[in-house]
Amino acid sequence: MNKNDAAHLFLRVILGLTFFIHGVSKFQGGIGNTAGFFDSLGIPGFMAYIVAGIELIGGLAVILGLGTRIVSVLFAVIMAGAIFTAKLPAGFLGNGQAAGYELDLALLAMSVYLACADRTVLSMDNVIFNKKGK
C-alpha cells in the first residue's frame, strides 16, 4: 500500500460514512418529513425515498469500495441537485437562516474525484475483480 492508496481509502471512507449517516438521519427523522421538504422545493416527494436509499446503501458500498465509481456519480448528482434546488439562494456560507452550500460542494468534489479515480488495492471491487492497484 502506498500513500495514494491510503489517502484514497481515507477519502472513500469519510465520504461513504457522511452519506450513510445522512441516509440514516432521513429515515430516523421521518422519511415523510423529508418527502414534504422535497415537495416544498418542487421536487416530487417520492424522490426523498430514492435519495435516502442511495445515501444509506451507497454510503455502505463506498465505505467497502464496492461500486465506488457508480455510487460516486449518484452522490455527485444528489449534491448538484441539493446545491441548485435548496442551497444556492443562501450563498456559499449561508445567510443565518439557511445553511450554505460549502459542505455540499466539498462532498461533490470528493464524489467526482472517486468517480474518476482508479480503483485501489484496498477495495472490495479489487478483491472481486482480482485486479491489483490501478
Automatic annotation (TrEMBL):
GO terms for cellular component: plasma membrane. It comes from the Bacteria. It is found in: Cell membrane. The chain crosses the membrane at residues 7-25, 45-66, 73-93, 105-122. It is a multi-pass membrane protein. Pfam families: DoxX. Keywords: Cell membrane, Membrane, Transmembrane, Transmembrane helix. Its main location: membrane. PANTHER family: INNER MEMBRANE PROTEIN YPHA-RELATED, OXIDOREDUCTASE CATD-RELATED. Belongs to the DoxX family. This is DoxX family protein. It comes from Peribacillus castrilensis. The lineage of its organism: Bacteria, Bacillati, Bacillota, Bacilli, Bacillales.
